[in-house]
Write a structure and sequence with these properties.
heterodimer, A: alpha+beta, 6-stranded antiparallel beta sheet, 5-stranded antiparallel beta sheet, 26% strand, globular, B: alpha/beta, 12-stranded mixed beta sheet
Chain lengths: 370, 311
């Protein structure tokens, strides 16, 4: 079998996967750079006898690719001064809708070529498009009876958000950019009487200007909070119920569970002193044995089966990473995030194999079955 | 920084959430916590109704520990209802010795938003209490604080209101061995001066005191200075100034205080002292906890120190 990767060649995701493919005894994957695919959406040719499996990787961590996707989403050839400035201004949040439109165009082109050339894929472009849209994803989860936190109706301003919270009787929410990934632009907001507090790694500079930073800060000035949320919500975001997480040894925790071919395999406990547990923000991995002992085997299993349930909502895809929350009652389990590219978990093994090695083996047995 | 996990141990016992379905299993080795989950907060279930259930359990009469955790996620009730419920069922918990009201983490609520109330009826209703602990200073009152058996009093706040400090300073607690106050900062309601703490520095207020904790304070340096020559230093064995804003000034005051060398323990975790000062304190010849060295934040040319738990 020959693997192809649609990805950013310089990215460690591509290198790690390439290493795993070679280790499994296959020829090194052929890398199709996003940059060239966006400009000229074609796949290489291959002989009919050759079985090809495409892996679509994250287009992230590459400013040029981000810029190209935004122009594609805007239906222009570029360059636009404003966009160019933004993508080169590290951490600045913006043009998410346009980026998403550009990314969906790439995914649709890939889908077409997959069908035309009779190529299989690891994760399906249609699923990836849904996984990068939190509104659609939430809908999909609910359709499959996966437990998820309640979502408020989509709003565009801070005032509308407060009104929607009042109407729903919810005092604590996570606001998440619909097309966002990781903790970028996520705001934890809670209110009590005249008090309001927002916790976020987003730094509010002025209306319309927000940066994603690596440090959490707490906002208590409502004017600032309104400015921050007007900017984030204006760029298309959703608010979901903020359910307090379980905690151990001074840190709250949740789970990143990778599901490969329907089975929960690699698991990471993510712990944090903050309310946002994303691993990029100085948070760290917890000891999964310790956590298992603390919450009990049954609950630990429930975390894994719930992740499998979430992955089952994407039957066309080989691997899905679900972020699973355990509430502070140590019983309630909810899926808070599903990720198309959540398998970059260096050092985490399942039955002696890395995430990529397990995926490659699963892809192989899947093609053999056909 | 914030309180990030619930109590896992309480007065030597493992903490477990009370589940009305399974009841009280082993009060000799488990400390039960009564709280509502986020899902339950959307139903009619309240902490008060769970307390009622708990107290009617056949084993309630054996219970010596009780923790009240998160009681409210949405509508911001005060603890007043919980206090009167606990008073109402006092005869069903005849052996209760150790009580903690407010085992609530930052995930569950901002510490400064926990709506406390006058908790003094509890001390009156439970004359056999040995340990009383409360978290959250908002609305808190200890009333006329009189209790003849209480050995441990812990009041955790992000900003201790003046009335609470006054109530402690005028308390009658003849058996108090351990006092721990989280004084907090003016950002969250601390509005006293170090002079307002004067009665705590004497040896008459709590004659049996062995452990004094003036923690999480924005005036740690001033407290350290006040302790020079303070009579309380002659009776206590352990001093805890952790979680606060202690800097070199306070560190020097501790060095200059001969009574410090007689202590069995000095806890200064979370401080702003220099390496050189830490080195000098290590030379005191007593166990000193110096972990958690913090850096001041610079903003607009001003330096800022923070207590460990404000929010």
């Amino acid at each position: 079998m020959q693997f192809w990767i649609l990805g950013n060649p310089e990215n460690r995701r591509v290198t790690f996967f390439t290493d795993a493919v070679c280790k499994a005894g296959f020829a090194a994957p052929l890398v199709i750079p996003y940059q060239s695919f966006i400009a000229d959406p074609v796949f290489p040719t291959h002989s009919e006898s050759q079985r090809v499996c495409l892996r679509i990787e994250s287009p992230g961590e590459n400013a040029d690719v981000r810029e190209a996707l935004i122009y594609s989403g805007m239906n222009i050839a570029g360059p636009v001064h404003e966009v160019h400035e933004l993508v080169n201004d590290t951490g600045r949040i913006g043009f998410a809708k346009e980026w998403y439109a550009g990314f969906v165009r790439v995914l649709n082109q890939a889908k077409l070529l997959l069908a035309q050339q009779g190529i299989s894929c690891m994760n399906h472009p249609d699923d990836i498009a849904v996984l990068f849209d939190k509104v659609k994803c939430h809908e999909r989860m609910r359709m499959h009876n996966v437990p998820v936190p309640a979502l408020l109706p989509v709003v565009h301003t801070y005032d509308e958000l407060r009104e929607a919270m009042r109407a729903a009787g919810i005092n604590r929410v996570f606001v998440k950019p619909v097309h966002g990934s990781s903790a970028s632009g996520v705001v934890a907001l809670r209110v009590q009487h005249e008090n309001v507090a927002a916790i976020s790694s987003a730094e509010f500079v002025r209306p319309g200007c927000v940066y994603n930073r690596l440090r959490m800060q707490v906002y208590r000035d409502e004017k600032q909070i309104a400015g921050l949320l007007d900017t984030i919500l204006g760029g298309y975001a959703v608010a979901e119920q903020w359910i307090p997480k379980a905690s151990i040894s001074g840190r709250s925790f949740d789970f990143r569970v990778l599901v490969i071919a329907g089975k929960a395999t690699h698991l990471v406990v993510r712990t944090s002193k903050s309310v946002i547990t994303n691993l990029h923000l100085g948070n760290r991995r917890g000891d999964s044995d310790e956590v298992e002992a603390y919450i009990g085997k049954e609950t630990f299993e429930k975390v894994k089966t719930t992740a499998e349930q979430a992955a089952a909502a994407f039957p066309q895809s080989l691997y899905i990473a679900a972020d699973v929350l355990l509430a502070n009652d140590k019983k309630t389990v909810k899926v808070i995030e599903t990720n198309a590219f959540g398998d970059l978990l260096p050092g985490i093994e399942h039955e002696g194999r890395s995430t990529y090695e397990t995926e490659i083996a699963a892809a192989e047995s899947k093609t053999k079955m056909k | 920084m914030t309180v990030n996990s619930n109590a896992e141990l309480f007065c030597g016992k493992v903490v477990e959430d009370y589940d009305p379905a399974t009841g009280i299993a082993d009060p000799a080795s488990i400390a039960y916590r009564i709280r509502i989950s986020y899902d339950e907060s959307e139903t009619d279930i309240t902490v008060e109704s769970k307390i009622d259930f708990f107290s009617m359990d056949p084993k309630a009469a054996e219970v010596t520990e009780l923790i009240i955790g998160a009681f409210d996620f949405e509508s911001s009730n005060t603890t007043a209802g919980i206090v009167s419920k606990l008073v109402e069922i006092k005869d069903r918990l005849p052996k209760l010795q150790n009580l903690f009201i407010g085992d609530i983490t930052y995930e569950e609520n901002e510490m400064s938003w926990i709506q406390q109330s006058d908790v003094s009826p509890l001390l009156e209703a439970y004359p056999d209490l040995l340990h009383f602990q409360v978290r959250g200073g908002n609305g808190l009152s200890l009333g006329k604080l009189i209790h003849h058996k209480l050995e441990t009093l812990i009041v955790e706040t992000g900003g201790m209101p003046a009335n609470v400090i006054r109530e402690v300073c005028y308390a009658t607690l003849p058996n108090l061995v351990k006092l721990e106050l989280w004084l907090g900062t003016d950002d969250y309601g601390f509005d006293s001066t170090v002079d307002d703490l004067d009665p705590l520095f004497g040896d008459k207020l709590f004659p049996k005191l062995k452990e004094l904790g003036l923690r999480n304070s924005c005036i740690s340096d001033q407290i350290a200075k006040k302790l020079i020559g303070a009579p309380v230093m002659n009776i206590i064995e352990e001093l805890d100034l952790s979680m606060g804003t202690l800097g070199d000034e306070g560190g020097q005051a501790l060095l200059d205080n001969p009574a410090v060398k007689k202590l069995k323990g000095l806890d200064l975790d979370h401080h702003y002292m220099s390496d050189a000062m830490m080195e000098k304190l290590r030379g005191l010849g007593i166990p000193v906890n110096l972990s958690g060295q913090e850096d001041e934040d610079e903003y607009d040319g001003e330096s800022y120190r923070y207590v460990e738990v404000g929010e």
